[in-house]
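Re: export button greyed out
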Amino acid sequence: MPHNSLSIDYSLRYQRIKLRLMAARQDAIIVINMKNIRYLTGFSGSDGALLVSETEMILLFDGRYTNQVKREVTGIATAEYREKSEGIARIIGEKGYQHVGFEAEYCSFSLLARVRQRVDNGIQLSPLGELDAIRAIKDEYELSCIRQAAKIVAQAVTGIMASLPRNATEQDLAAEIDYRTRLAGAEAMAFATIVASGENSALPHAQPTNRVLSNGDVLLIDCGAVLGGYASDETVVFFIDRITEKQKLVYQAVKQAQEAAIQEIKAGVTARKIDRTARQVLAIYKLEEFFTHSTGHGVGLAIHEEPRLASISESVLLAGMVVTVEPGVYLPGEFGIRIEETVLVKENGCEILTNIPKIPTIINIGD
Amino acid sequence: MPHNSLSIDYSLRYQRIKLRLMAARQDAIIVINMKNIRYLTGFSGSDGALLVSETEMILLFDGRYTNQVKREVTGIATAEYREKSEGIARIIGEKGYQHVGFEAEYCSFSLLARVRQRVDNGIQLSPLGELDAIRAIKDEYELSCIRQAAKIVAQAVTGIMASLPRNATEQDLAAEIDYRTRLAGAEAMAFATIVASGENSALPHAQPTNRVLSNGDVLLIDCGAVLGGYASDETVVFFIDRITEKQKLVYQAVKQAQEAAIQEIKAGVTARKIDRTARQVLAIYKLEEFFTHSTGHGVGLAIHEEPRLASISESVLLAGMVVTVEPGVYLPGEFGIRIEETVLVKENGCEILTNIPKIPTIINIGD
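Workaround output, generated via the alternate export path:
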């Protein structure tokens, strides 16, 4: 989708899932998560299934997607079904798979029950953990999508902030960001854009309200674009007309926590350590208790994916992973500050992929 | 959310799910589908669970939603969890439920396995079919939301069509529709707005492309707004600069099919009959084979819900149900026509809730 000459090496992706197949000692895996299916085949529909064996992948879809599959999928076997369990059971029978694993986090109890009913008694269906980690290391094509998504959204946000309209509500501003981002070529927003002003900024998962932006407000914006299926994600905080000493101090603390975390990021470091670093900096300022979520998450075809930068994460960062770094401090009833970049893990450090300058910018409401 | 004095009677909704509980002969039901949870409690978060017994409902949520639950939920017991299966198992244990049903279509294999591990051995967990049908009959509050959503989106679309900009792409037009709809107060779009021009209109599930709108194009727009959580849904077809005889004939056939179907709608009629009626009209024109999807679906908190107006549907229409009626004819490589209204089923007929006039309007590209 980005206007460049990069292409996707699906055979490499097939090798990745085959490693999982072999580790699970199955004849085949039923892939259910549509993000994994898109990653492995290019099919971007919202329903389907994929069977992966040691010799081939077979994409299963229903009649709504006949044209789309033709357009999007090449070099991979495909088969249409009337009902998903019927399609899955048919291929298992035809191919003679005996031991079949399935994505237990994404497979509903009903779908599994229907497949079980339709296949021969001897066939073993076994729950597998998530396969999502196969998507964690990005290739050049994926990075170019994320870079371009980040560029588009940065232009939209900075353009709007240069002349913030009078009497705009949080909802208006969110609509404006989305509008400009999409006119600039984004396929969609990566998630519902967060615009939180004043004390609403103290809610980590605020949804835009009809609150009118006013002088003295903290203005927190968290948004991302989708390009070629890939998401960007960043959070920037502005101050309307003025900034208080307290806001400045909290901003600097969060900024320092984020910079320390980013400084730590390179291949081989544990995700847990990045999270701990951010918390340790906030602890210096007695602000740790107000940082109520984890430090970051992988970004790609899904807005939240592997690895998680959390205190309980078991992940180790590897070159090519793309993660957010987004410490925040939320002072209930007062204001909140979150600063977020999307970064690419490299052998000896990391590269920031997002573009909006993360400085405590004071903006003005226009005439 | 609509500016009126209507309110939601949650006790009535609780009675509805209690009927299902009694029919299933369980001590409690684990509700997983977030639309059902919102319907029963008012909680609009994107993760959680609900336990329903004969004496109470208990909403389970994680720490991300503490504030939101306080704001949105009153008169219903709530409990926070660290991990969903832990929360569910804890309440089952505390309350001493022995026979517990769960929504098998929405419960992942993993979640069920984790709950099973955590509860006492004697406790029976039984798969239940969908509970979504409890939401099928709308009350006055729900109808007022849908009506207002439909009004907002109609104003946006007709406003844009009055002066279609030069060199606009399908993507631009979709962004413009969404922008105006949201500025007018919609919380979100009901689904990704479809703008399909020229031969793209022959794809029933087209996604907006960068194709530039030009004279001679069929222009199909399928969109809806969300207000108070409730969706509207309609499809309108315009003709840019001119209309061919063939386009006119197909339009009239689809319109006739839709009107015949709408004519049939009233309480007591089977959903299947509505679908058949639309097909029979298209068969007269030898166009039946180009109508490749079902005639309609329920609309409410979900954009696709019960009942389905399809040939295999078992549903009977009841007063208060809200359904789309949307026959279409798709001529591959040429053009497609779909005409869709959202209608309210009444005792002796139905009422159209959508507002854009469904006539073969010729529009012009501006300067």
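The first strand of chain B starts at residue 28 and ends at 31. The button fix ships in the next patch.
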